[in-house]
Amino acid sequence: MTAFFHQEGEAFAPTALSANHWHPDAQSGVALGLLMSHTLQAQPEAANGRLARFTLDILRPAPALPTRVAWRLANSEGTVRLLEGELEAGGQVAARASALFVDPTAASPPAMPLVPPIAAPEDAGKAPAMARQIGLEPRFLSVGRLGPSGERTPHVLWLRLEADITPGVRASPISTAVAISDFGGSALGDYGSAWNFPNVDIAVHFARQPEGEWVQTRVSPLLLGENVGIIDHRLSDRRGPFAHAHQVMFFTRRETARS
Amino acid sequence: MSACYRFENGLYLPLAPDVASGVVLAALLTREIERAPAPAVLRLARITLELPQVAPVGPIAAAARIVRDGKRQQLVEAELAAAGRSFAKAVGLRVSNGEGPSEPPLGAARAGSTPPCAVGDLVEGEAPSASARAVLACDMAATAANVVGTDWLARAVDLSVYFARDPAGDRLLVDARMEQYGEGYGLVSATLADEAGPFGFANQTVIYSRAPV
Asked: Which candidate, A12, A211, A244, B127, has a CA 20 to 30 Å from the CA of B27?
């Protein structure tokens, strides 16, 4: 399998790579994020703009059926443009998103210096083969685990997309950033046997536009005993940091049915 | 300290001519989302505020609509308009109360605290909610974390606040830093804490203009 979707006219048909870990008949957060960010960047209003924020709300599981995305310009004021999009699958809106662009002509103070990450993707260990193909190549620098006193070790990984968005169409660095921002659950392996924890959103806040095919995330969960935990991502490319991202994770005990 | 607005017949009426600002509008939008009808007791888990325009002077009309309803999760959209024109918007994710795993936060915010924005009552006769006070405090972060010097002015055009739990108490810490890499915008990122410890995060996009000489 070489792509997450096949394009069928204006619709995108998900492949097996787009399957959801929590709902096997639905599309994954990675797939929804990839499709929304990919179609966003094709909008004329996005041309030449710099993406400052991308927020995706997952309203309900998106069935693995041909999927359509519609974007519209919601606001344009000075150097700022706001776009809103909806993703429809199986006759229902399953996700919606908003994106904030800033014109490249906007005034800018002198840039802050960038500090590259200490370790490159080539320094990281390849992840063991997964039970199913996911179209992504994660390379872990450190795997977050809970110690005996409840202290957490850092969770740091590089990620690139092995598969195309559609056959022959590679993911942009922005789409890769959105995909890795759905990867916070990989830091919560200690809870996998007792809890379900799908994320209900993905938000990426950019400080600059990313470059290259590899994106690194440093994941910090904030879990305070409530049914919602927040995942904090610090995203970098080979040049240095470029974004913060967050996921709201909704926890239910494994024996509890999800409504 | 007196209130910023009187709420009457669905309109926010300013009680002083210069009361409208991004920070106050963010709190009004938070109030609108928290006032939306819900099928169960829900709390705010995330709010994304879009403030692309400078706040207008005069009465403000507010409207909220439920985008996705449920007893466990609800998505609410709120909008502010003046003279029939929408100028600010927010999306709020509300969730039910329930249990989940707990662990000591990584990189907990530094010790210390700062008082939240001292605006008194947002709406006459009504104290701001804990979430609205946190939003008010976050919106001050762009100013507090402005590291680009006095030659530049920074204006926030959005704000996203994430709550792992409800904040508590009168004093909040916003541990913020700004990054900008010469692309016409900057990012302010903050860890939020109250006296019990960290409870959330905030991110804010800022755009720049040269300060008047």
From this structure: A244
Cβ contact (<8 Å) for A230 and B186?
A: no
Q: Are B179 and A114 inside 8 Å of each other by CB?
A: no
Q: Which residues pair with A126 in a beta bridge?
A: A139
- A interface test, pick of B69, B161, B189, B203 with most A CB neighbours within 10 Å: B203
- ipTM (interface pTM): 0.94
**C-alpha–C-alpha distance, residues B177 and A251, integer Å:** 30
Q: Which residue of A has its CA nearest to B71?
A: A259
pLDDT tens-digit profile of A94-136? 999 999 999 988 889 999 999 999 999 999 877 666 656 789 9
Tokens of B137: 């405090």
Q: What is the CATH number of the domain that holds A234?
A: 2.40.160.210
Rounded CA gap, A191 and A21, in Å?
15
- The structural domain count of chain A equals 1
- Check if A239 contacts B (Cβ < 8 Å): no
- Identify the CATH assignment for B5-97+119-210 out of 2.40.160.210, 2.40.37.10, 1.10.240.10, 2.60.40.1080: 2.40.160.210
Please tell me the distance from the alpha carbon of residue A106 to that of residue A210, in angstroms, as a whole number.
18
**What is the Cα–Cα distance from B32 to A157, expressed in whole angstroms?**
39
